[in-house]
Specification:
By secondary structure, this protein is mainly α. It has one domain. Helices cover about 75% and strands about 0% of the residues. The chain has helices at about 5-20, 25-55, 60-70, 75-85, 95-105, 110-120, 125-135, 135-160, 170-180, 180-185, 200-235, 235-245, 250-260, 265-280, 285-295, 300-305, 310-335. Helix 4 (about 75-85) packs parallel to helix 6 (about 110-120), helix 6 (about 110-120) packs across helix 15 (about 285-295) and helix 14 runs antiparallel to helix 15 (about 285-295). It starts with 5 loop residues before the first helix and ends with a helix.
Length: about 325
């Protein structure tokens, strides 16, 4: 079977065995091979796929997304919001502006949450690294369950009618938008009538996003791979299997609870998860931890507190936590 990353594997092997004179089976040799192979592989994936995703995202500017979701109701709106969330950029710093902008435009609360849950959890960096480290099957299952969790959780929030637990100033902004005079609306720029970009400009945007992603995460990638290399070479397999293996029924909830308050860049976490899987930790347990870190980062929760009252924030965190734990167990059942 053709392996596009074989040159990296060959070069890493040559450096470890020929240049450094180490055995691949030794602790140090195994760690160095892991590091020298994964760094160029992951960075290459980030550059290529983030360029493709960035080019595609030029068709989905934030205003277009808001207009697309505006007025959508019930389950169909949750499905559309979660799907759009996969291919649009999101970070914790944009949580509040997105949240306010969507509700101000008339996007229902539950639909808004489906987008905010899907966008960080199934972002391009997570997908790129999953694909490169674990293959297409695991990536597709991760995407499927991540989107399903965003749809179901958002739908439940919509059914519960929790608008009363959104900070009042958000609804005041929505009323101001709805009460705009027709003359004022005529002067508003229609986001769907924005200047059409040429393919050259779209490719330039893709190149720019690729550069920005790599520039902002390469340090975390290298650090994460270094930690993963240490785990791969030095942490005994028996230790991982004993405390976080398939025989521990509480491994999944423990992993999720540990991941919820953790602030870590997904690019730095994913290489560590690869090493844990290689050591025998079940895939579902590892990916549940990854989903918790990605979808429930501490900075995002702190920022969302500016627009959500504690009751709604607790519902959001609770639904996501229970959903991710359930997905972890399902993952472990499917990926045996």
């Amino acid at each position: 079977m053709f392996d596009p990353f074989y040159p990296f594997d060959w070069l890493a092997t040559q450096i470890v065995t020929k240049l450094l004179g180490l055995e691949i089976s030794s602790h140090l040799g195994s760690s160095l091979h892991f590091f020298l192979y994964d760094v160029p592989k992951v960075l290459t994936l980030l550059i290529v796929i983030s360029f493709i995703v960035g080019t595609f995202q030029s068709f989905l500017e934030p205003e277009r997304v808001r207009s697309l979701l505006e007025g959508k109701r019930t389950f169909a709106g949750n499905v559309l919001a979660a799907i759009v969330g996969i291919v649009t950029p999101f970070c914790s710093c944009s949580a509040v502006p997105l949240f306010i902008g969507f509700l101000e435009a008339g996007v229902p609360l539950g639909v808004t949450f489906s987008y905010l849950m899907a966008a960080p959890m199934v972002n391009e960096v997570a997908v790129i690294l999953l694909w490169g480290l674990f293959g297409l099957k695991v990536t597709l299952i991760y995407i499927g369950f991540g989107v399903a969790l965003a749809i179901v959780s958002g739908y439940i929030i919509g059914l519960l009618k929790l608008e009363k637990w959104v900070e009042p100033f958000v609804w005041e902004l929505q009323k101001s938008r709805q009460n705009m005079a027709p003359a004022d609306k005529d002067h508003d720029e229609d986001p769907l009538e924005s200047i059409e970009l040429t393919w050259k400009q779209r490719f330039e945007q893709g190149r720019f996003q690729s550069n920005e992603i790599v520039r902002s995460v390469w340090v975390y990638v290298v650090l994460g791979i270094a930690i993963g290399a240490g785990i791969h070479g030095y942490v005994p397999t028996d230790f991982i299997v004993k405390y976080a293996g398939a025989n521990n029924p509480f491994a999944v909830p423990i992993a999720v609870v540990l991941g919820v308050p953790l602030y870590a860049n997904i690019a730095g976490v994913m290489p560590i998860t690869e090493a844990l899987v290689n050591k025998g930790m079940p895939m579902g347990t590892v990916l549940a931890f990854t989903m918790a870190v990605t979808a429930l980062s501490f900075p995002e929760i702190v920022i969302l507190k500016k627009v959500l009252q504690p009751q709604l924030l607790a519902v959001f965190v609770g639904l996501m936590t229970m959903g991710i734990i359930s997905i972890g167990y399902i993952f472990n059942a499917l990926l045996v």
